[in-house]
Specification:
The chain has 247 residues and is mainly alpha-helical. It is found in: Membrane; Plastid.
Amino acid sequence: MNIIPYSNKTLKGLYDISGVEVGQHFYWQIGGFQTHAQVLITSWVVITILLGSVVIAVRNPQTISTDGQNFFEYVLEFIRDLSKTQIGEEYGPWVPFIGTMFLFIFVSNWSGALLPWKIIELPHGELAAPTNDINTTAALALLMSATYFYAGLSKKGLSYFEKYIKPTLILLPINILEDFTKPLSLSFRLFGNILADELVIVVLVSLVPLVIPIPVMFLGLFTSGIQALIFATLATPYIGESMEGHH
């Protein structure tokens, strides 16, 4: 049996699959790198919304809190409680990071549920929520992995790596793989759900633009919020786990 041609054919098939794109992308050439411009544009919109909301709500704190101040205080308390529950007593330094991740994902998801980005026509490509692109969710996963290792190394130093050979050296490959598959599974789950939600809304807006999309958009808001909560809820224990050194 001639295995080599078959293997080459399989590799070529995998390469062809890797080139498949979901939707049309608008590219910018920055130096020697080609970037998805639509992701940068919508990410800047989300960041502007977050920064603008925070500035408006807390620029003049009141003794008797305003509605905006109450909302952000509630969000802060929620993130603090989540971090304390999942990480433990050393949760304090991680609240800004967890809060930033949660709010960015939450607002990104909601932007895709509220705004049918794809109906905004560009010369080449189409707009979408930042979390609709696998590059964004993969970047979040890599950031989570870097934070995971940083938390463990800052707490335990090089002895942190001893966990990979516990309880036995045989588990070394599995323990290493586990540290990368957990955040990657979060990224694919987030990407798949947001992509599916936006596609459903765009199709319904195109077919029945007035009535049917409204309840679907409300459902999209709910599921988008749940996805942000799931990402934060599952990502936070990874930090606590790396600091404690148990699985």
